[in-house]
Amino acid sequence: MSVQTLFTNFSLLEPTFGEIRGGYQLLVEDDKIRELSDKPIKAKDAVRVDCGKRTLMPGLIDSHVHAIHSEVNIRFMENLPLTLVAARAATRLTAMLNRGFTTVRDTGGADWGIKTAIETGHIVGPRLFIAGQSIGPTGGHSDSRRRTSSGDECMCCNGLQFKSAVADGVDEVRKVAREQMRQGADHVKIMMSGGVASPYDPLDSLQFSDGEVKAAVEEATAFGRYVCAHAYSAKAIIRAAKFGVRTIEHGNLIDDTAAKLMAQKDMFLVANLVTYYAMKERAAKWGMTAESLEKNEIVLQGGLKSLEICKRHGVPVAYGSDLLGELHWDQSNEFTIRQAVMSPIEIIRSATLIGADVLRMPGKVGTLKAGAFADLIVVDGNPLKNLALLVDQGKHLSAIMKGGKFHKNRLN
What we know:
It is a single chain. The protein has 2 domains: 4-58 and 367-409, Urease, subunit C, domain 1, CATH 2.30.40.10; 60-358, TIM Barrel (Alpha-Beta Barrel), CATH 3.20.20.140. Helices cover 30% and strands 23% of the residues. The protein has 12 helices and 18 strands. The strands form 4 sheets. Strands 1, 2, 3, 4, 5, 16, 17 and 18 form an 8-stranded mixed sheet that branches. A 5-stranded parallel sheet has the order 11-12-13-14-15. Strands 6-7-8 form a 3-stranded parallel sheet. α6 (234-242) runs parallel beside α7 and α8 (274-282) runs antiparallel to α9 (290-313).
């Protein structure tokens, strides 16, 4: 027998509308939204939920997380047993759901085991889309080995094995990409420029050759998946665009030429400015090196500018956080950081509609229209007037529903 829940007495924030609307009711049946109407809905057997004139909106989507990256200095994961890595991931994922993120896209690290644990209720967390291991070349952003490492160390108690894989040459890239998809990856993550948290690669380094990028894209496409690329520099972004990469992760050092090409190719940028602010403030406390903090300063300066450039050229920008270790508590701060260059509805759409497009789930997540999953939050106020209502670890969320089931409900 179907279970129905009828939401009444709320202000509606449906991102496709772009404004708050009153007079609506919403009917949930099992795990889906059955009806959203501006007229009374007849559902005599439904459990009625009075929202007390609060704002009802879709659950949030974070398009760039790392559930298993529980150390700010990634190298420290080298000494963690896999059981502890998984336990820490569970804590991080529950915290994400507590903040109203009902869907997240992991861009390297989380595996099918973590995803299955959520789907079967062993871990309480958001819907999880995974890349498996991110893939990069020797010495690149995916290569977390010590310079003294021989590569022959036992991996049974080394949490780094979750994080990434090293592949050199077209054949190796094909094989490793295929392996991630065999292991259940929803998307393939490749490294195309230097990174902040990696110790030995300059930010402006170009990683993976044309042929290697093409191989990853060919394999992902053949399997019905797509490629997302870690890339900061304009050169790396342009190379990714030329060879079929679908989403650019970070993109802080983008320029007009790269953005124009991304728009022509119908690509997405997944920005995550909050991680650079958080690292600047307190990453040193958690062991991040001086070299990484120097690189962080460079990309921090380009963050807001990258949003302006993408807006100018019509590149859709999704919401991401990319926070490592104990910095994950800042996940929702991206909402207020972006206000410097984006309007509240643009920011909310980045964490709903655009995130759904990135996941190739339009109409299924990020919306309250009929047929979507019943993922929603009830906010104590109007986020279009005060985005800070989405911050503070879910303090201002009176209800969080995922798949038709309440994770939190203080309305009744």
